[in-house]
Every structure is written in C-alpha cells, then in structure tokens.
Amino acid sequence: GAVVSQHPSWVICKSGTSVKIECRSLDFQATTMFWYRQFPKQSLMLMATSNEGSKATYEQGVEKDKFLINHASLTLSTLTVTSAHPEDSSFYICSVGTSGSSYEQYFGPGTRLTVT
Amino acid sequence: DAKTTQPPSMDCAEGRAANLPCNHSTISGNEYVYWYRQIHSQGPQYIIHGLKNNETNEMASLIITEDRKSSTLILPHATLRDTAVYYCIVRVGNTGNQFYFGTGTSLTVIP
C-alpha cells in the first residue's frame, strides 16, 4: 500500500501564529488526499478533501479561511492552521485515496498540534 | 455523517478469536464496508474491506450478512498487539470516496 508521511510529527505554537503541516505520499501518485482532525478520546473527523491542482472541498462547519489546504503536486498536500488558538490543539491526520474497486485510504502517522 | 454503529468496547482473551460487530442498516447497494484500526496516537491502519461476499486476508476475516445490514470483523487469534480502536466505515463512493468515522469499538486483548 501507499506510504504516507507527515511533518512535523508534533508542534507547539503560540496563540495567533500560523502552523503548516505537510502530508507526503512517498510512493503513490495521489490525486486525492484527505485531512482529518481528532480530539482526545474522540473519533476522526473529516475536515476536507484535497484535490491535486484544484481547490479543496471542506466539510460543513470547517472554516476554509482558517484551515488552508494546498495540493500543488501528486505527492504533497499541506494544511495551514492560521491564527491558531488553543481550541485548535488536536491530532491532525492526512490520508491518501487510491482508486477503483480496491479503493483504500492510507493514513499518515499524524501531527500533534498544541497551541499555547 | 457516519453510517455505522458499533459497541463502544469489548474484551478478548489472548489467543482467542475476537468478533467485532458493526451495524450499517442504511447501506446502499454499491457501498463498500471497510475496517480500520487505530493504535493510540497513530494513524489508522487498513484491515479489510468488502462489498457483499465474505473476505479474508492475512489479518482478519470479514463476514457480511446477506442483507448487508451488518458485518463482523474476525481476528482469528487475538494478540496483545491487537489492542486498538476498530472502526467500521461505509464508503460513500458516489460523492468522492470520503470516509466518515463512527465512534468505533475499543478492543482490549487480555493476557
């Protein structure tokens, strides 16, 4: 299956600053990537679908101006949390979607964001 | 929104089979059932998926009822490393292949 990496694995930032998280598909040409957020002891929540070369599609209730997604190549999607606040502290996970009847999503290891 | 319901937690003795149920009574005819698991503070790991037939791979077996309204994931010989949260997901294939995770089942394998 596809190997997905995320950078950084954890980050601490001050309130009001912006943080960029990278998601890389190391061995698969990913036209579609997904971004999830997970709060402690909760399930994964889909934030947005990232499409290579076009604008991301955000889920209802997710602020597109706060969570900027860029998918400029088939191997890289980035999520920028702008003007971060403590309530944005969470575990952010990306995934790569394959295609066809054997469709799968391969997940990255996640990025732990703490906003102080 | 998640289209599945699962029991919040289960225990299983090491070496025994773990049977994890999932209800997906509103599943459509062309929607697949996927199982993933998440070990604490890691990304989810793919286990298995199926449409209507039972499936088996090196990790697990997936049993889907004939009416497709429920399924069971079977880990044939549970080990301590199988302790994780297991998610049953119905893929919304016609609208972009998104996964909407439910609350999952926290499986604890007991020595």
Give a written overview of the molecule.
Chain A starts with a strand and ends with a strand. Chain A is built from no helices and eleven strands. In chain A, the strands form two sheets. In chain A, strands 2, 4, 5, 6, 9, 10 and 11 form a seven-stranded mixed beta sheet that branches. In chain A, strands 1-3-8-7 form a four-stranded antiparallel beta sheet, with no helix packed on it. By secondary structure, chain A is mainly β. Chain A has strands spanning 4-7, 10-13, 19-25, 32-38, 45-51, 57-58, 67-73, 76-81, 90-97, 105-107, 111-115. Helices cover 0% and strands 52% of the residues of chain A. With 111 residues, chain B is mostly beta strands. In chain B, 0% of the residues lie in helices and 43% in strands. Chain B has strands spanning 9-13, 18-23, 33-38, 45-50, 55-56, 61-64, 70-75, 84-90, 105-110. In chain B, strands 1-9-8-3-4 form a five-stranded mixed beta sheet, with no helix packed on it. A four-stranded antiparallel beta sheet of chain B has the order 2-7-6-5, with no helix packed on it. Chain B starts with 8 loop residues before the first strand and ends with a strand. Chains A and B meet through strand 4, strand 5, strand 9 and strand 10 of A and strand 3 and strand 4 of B.
Could you tell me which chain pair has the largest interface and how many residues each side has?
A: A-B, 25 and 25 residues
| H and E string of chain A | EEEEEEEEEEE
Overall helicity of chain B: under 10%
User: From the structure provided, what is the oligomeric state, counting identical versus distinct chains?
Assistant: heterodimer
Extended strand count of chain A: 11
Structural shape of chain B? globular
**Helix-residue proportion of chain A:** under 10%
Biggest beta sheet attributes of chain B? 5 strands, mixed
